[in-house]
Amino acid sequence: MWKIIVLTLLSAVASLLVIVNAFYQKKQFYPAIVFIMKSNGSMVVFYFQIFILFTIIANIIKLIFFGELRRAEIDRLTDRTWYTLTETCLSFAVFREDFNQIFLGLLLLLVILKVFHWLADERVEFIEQRLISILAILSTVDVFFIYEAVESTMRLGPTAQLVFGFEYAILLTLSWNSFIKYIFHIIDTYVSPWENKTYYLLYSELIIRAIRVAIYVVFVLIMLNIYIVPLFVFRPMLFTLKSFRKSLNDVTLWQRAIYNLNTLYPDASEQELTRSDNVCIICREEMLRTCKILPCNHIFHTVCLRSWFQRQQSCPICRLNILNVNYDNLNSTNDIQQQNETLNNIQETTEIIINNVELNTLEEINKFNNSLDYHRLKLRCTVPALISMHTLLQVSHPITEHYMKRSETEEINANRK
Question: Which residue windows are transmembrane per the record (predicted)?
Answer without folding.
Answer: 46-66, 102-119, 131-150, 162-187, 207-234
